[in-house]
Amino acid sequence: MAFTVSHARVLVTGGASGMGRLYAQRAVQEQAASVTLWDIDALTLDATASALSGYGTVIHTRVVDVSELDDVRSAATHELDEGRVPDVLINNAGIVRGNEYFWNTDSERDTEPTMRINAIAPMHITREFLPAMISDAPWEKRILNVASAAGTLSNPRMSVYAASKWALIGWSDSVRLELERSGNAHVRITTFCPSYVATGMFEGARGPLMTPVLSPDIAVARAWQAMLAGKPMRRTPWTVGLASTLKGVLPQRAWDVVADRVFSVYSSMDEYTGRVATPRVAEPTREEERS
């Protein structure tokens, strides 16, 4: 039987806005029993919860700084004490720092928060919930770790962000293998590696050759499909996989030439400015509202 979110308990980090809100919206549309949203932005969190309420899915919210282990542990303990072992855990929260050479970045302002939120936080969050998810056999569970194509290819002006996503990918896929090899394959991990997504985080960045900047709706739809299917990794668009293959085949200097002069990967962050506005997201329809 295919995995479904219907009647499932879903937890989304960074769930107040952007792709996080879209993941929550899809869960509501597919009649999840409950959706828990973690975010550091209390006002936006309340607004999103209000917009998603009234459609048959119970919405829970909590202000959580995922970069702080104590905050993560407290929030996770609350979920487990309330009997909400996630059927679907979406590690979506992330930040980006860019358009600076590494030696011009600030360790406290740039390196520390990027690594803690993008790479270390998913590890802490998953560690808090995974034992309970494993123990809930034979019911299938899903973990979606939102990484990036930046974790598969080196790119100037985003070295710390790339490092955080490389770490996330390596950890995520390693835990997937651990689950499979230990007889706990009912918990399936999907690592999602999109190119630039138009959430505002990458405002000004240019998509490489044949690599359009993805709309958030398309990115979330592809990640969601892969998560439901329990696919180990989803790269999107197709050029992300092509670039990874070429990088693995070509000598490093040859790949540098192709990446720079053919695909324009190495100049894609030259005009990066960062978030300028929070996009508005459509509310779910009441078409399939549960009683």
UniProtKB/TrEMBL annotation:
<dbReference type="Pfam" id="PF00106">
    <property type="entry name" value="adh_short"/>
</dbReference>
<dbReference type="InterPro" id="IPR036291">
    <property type="entry name" value="NAD(P)-bd_dom_sf"/>
</dbReference>
<comment type="similarity">
    <text>Belongs to the short-chain dehydrogenases/reductases (SDR) family.</text>
</comment>
<dbReference type="InterPro" id="IPR002347">
    <property type="entry name" value="SDR_fam"/>
</dbReference>
<dbReference type="InterPro" id="IPR020904">
    <property type="entry name" value="Sc_DH/Rdtase_CS"/>
</dbReference>
<keyword id="KW-0560">Oxidoreductase</keyword>
<protein>
    <submittedName>
        <fullName>Short-chain dehydrogenase</fullName>
    </submittedName>
</protein>
<dbReference type="GO" id="GO:0016616">
    <property type="term" value="F:oxidoreductase activity, acting on the CH-OH group of donors, NAD or NADP as acceptor"/>
</dbReference>
